[in-house]
Amino acid sequence: MALDVNKNSYTFMFAAIMVIVVAALLSFAATSLKPMQDENVKREKMQNILASISVDVERDGAEEKYKEYIKQELVIKNGKIEEGVDAFTVEMSKEVAKPVEERNAPLYVAEKEGQTYYIIPLRGKGLWGPIWGYMSLSADASTVYGAVFDHKGETPGLGAEIVTPMFSEQFHEKKILDADKEFVSIEVRKGDAAGDYQVDGISGGTITSQGVQAMIQDNVAAYFPFLLSYQPGTATAMK
């Protein structure tokens, strides 16, 4: 018996079948593309880590350069190296929600032109959503060598300017420890920065700038006093 295409039951049945087919196709596409998406995310992360020590590389070549420059991947917890945790896969969004002494804090030890650098991942809150980045410290664990920042939804032309070199390059040669080796972090000022411990914030992006300051203060604190006593090469190197 032929179906009556004019009946509501036919319309509902047809719509239900189409929903099931489309959902199945979308699920298959998402599953098929996930390995490629994960690989792209991995390489982009490597790009950003390297960018903090001024190594610029295309995404396709990021893994090779990463292995060249990054000599150790460590996880610091309550001032000690936490064994058995993969630093690269630690989710900073979850860790920063914990008290500092309970966090798994990833640390990347890099070597570039004979110099050692410590690269610290950062995660915080901007005006409209999460902000993040990487900050590299020179071997003295006090002097900032470089920094890169990114965001999810800050306002274009205002808070979103944290991604620009004009903002990030200010951090070069700034200090995060005082003369007594106490952690003091970096203050993001409203256009009147001066000295070793301050940078200028983004004009019109006060809340995002404050978010960067709070992010650095909160995240970097987890690495001290460990960094002051650590000797590169004393932990298992990357394989």
Describe this structure in words.
This protein has a domain at 72-229. The protein contains 6 helices and 8 strands, in the order ααββαββββαββαα. It has helices spanning 8-51, 62-69, 92-95, 165-168, 206-220, 226-229; strands spanning 70-77, 80-81, 105-112, 115-125, 130-138, 144-151, 187-189, 198-200. The radius of gyration is 23 Å and the shape is globular. The relative contact order is 0.12. The model has no long low-confidence stretch (mean pLDDT 90).
Largest sheet: 6 strands, antiparallel
Q: Give start-end ranges of low-pLDDT stretches.
A: none
| Average of pLDDT | 90
Q: Determine the fraction of residues in helical runs and give it as a percent range.
A: 25-40%
Strand order in the sheet with the most strands: 2-1-3-4-5-6
Cα separation of the termini: 68 Å
Which descriptor suits the 3D outline? globular
Throw out a few tags for this protein.
single chain; 239 residues; alpha+beta; 22% strand; globular
Would you kindly provide a brief summary of this structure?
With 239 residues, the protein is of the alpha+beta class. It is 33% helix and 22% strand. The strands form 2 sheets. It has a 6-stranded antiparallel sheet.
Topology:
Layout: H1 8-51, H2 62-69, E1 70-77, E2 80-81, H3 92-95, E3 105-112, E4 115-125, E5 130-138, E6 144-151, H4 165-168, E7 187-189, E8 198-200, H5 206-220, H6 226-229
Parallel strand pairs: 7-8
Antiparallel strand pairs: 1-2, 1-3, 3-4, 4-5, 5-6
Helix pairs in contact: 1-2
